[in-house]
User: Fold this.
Amino acid sequence: MKKKALLAAAALAALMVPQVAGAEGFGIVQWSAAGVAMSGARMFAENDVSMVAANPASLTKFEGKGLGINATYISPHGSYDINGTLSAGGVSIPVQESGKNRIHPGIVPGTYYVKQMTDKDWYGIGAYTRYGMVSGFQPRTLASVDNYFSKMNGLSITPVYAHKFDKKWSAAVGAEINYVGLELNKNTSVIGGSLGDAHIKGETYALGWNAAANYSFDEKNEVGVVYRSRVKHSLEADFHGYRANGGLAGIGTLSGDAYGVVTLPDQWTIGYNHKFDKKNRVEFNATRTNWHTYDALNIHLSNLNFNGTPSGSDIPLPSPKNWSDTWRYAIGYEHKFSEKYTGMLGFAFDDHAIPFNGGDSIVPTGLRRTYSVGLQYNDKKHTVAAAIAWEDIGSLTYAFLGQETAVARTHDNYCKIFSIGYQYKF
Assistant:
């Protein structure tokens, strides 16, 4: 009965679509509580089912069968200023505004199952988040013209297979089913936008893959590499506009279909693990995210109806982004106080990908520094971990609504992160 109850809980958690906060931009690395405690520098952990996400090649360090469930709470905070002149409907409008983002905390779940099949073969499956965000600003403000409320729910389901060739080499390969649910809301009527208040909502599935390899020089030193493929999404969504005017005369409602294509970037992570002794070890890793795939967020509106009458016109909504590739560097330290209790520390530095002409209020974050600490309890069957992290988010300056005559700047940004995880070994 216990096993059936645990498997039922795992299935339920795997079906939960996460609502994730945008403190990391789109990129999410909070895949487990122990991973949060070490700021993501956790690629070589032993007997940890969350290696399905962090480094599948390390599944060869797991004995038996195990199930893990994690939940991470993320709460971003920040302020902004907007100054300059906007052009709308052929008229130049001076703008000046200061405010704060609406706090939209989210929960990021991570669920994993691992089974050792032989002395050399392992199987695992995970449900976790690689990309996602949620953000927004007070209605009827200038910032809400760009983003009143936006949310990207992301979920990756990844079955993986790991093989241990010998004492030094292990490798893994896996597939990815990537789900994205996107919702965009804008109060464009604040400045007389031709579409008025706009709402777009849709969802899509796409396929990707991953691969990993570890090499142990000796009992104390090990290196690893993980590759996660890019995933191309073609999104078909519903569009609704309110108080439409300008190009579509009058005030009323506008509805139709929306279509867009977005390619989520591929990633390379390289890591190094050093064991000082049986109680102390340290990990370093670096992650390259190829954000150049996010070159635009272009949306095309079609099959439009104005006040219930076909309008006979399509509307392209171009939004160039041209993000840059970035690096994330992390270091994590683990100390075993005893056979049952382990302490963990971490620090990470993330560069930002957003150029001046590609910024928006959907992901208004600059470079980030993360400080973390956590504690883990472990016995033969049960593992419980808890972690807290503080993320100092740098300022970001960008052309508001893509117009260089109006400059938006975010500042005093930070994020609070809390995580808890449980693992059961069969």
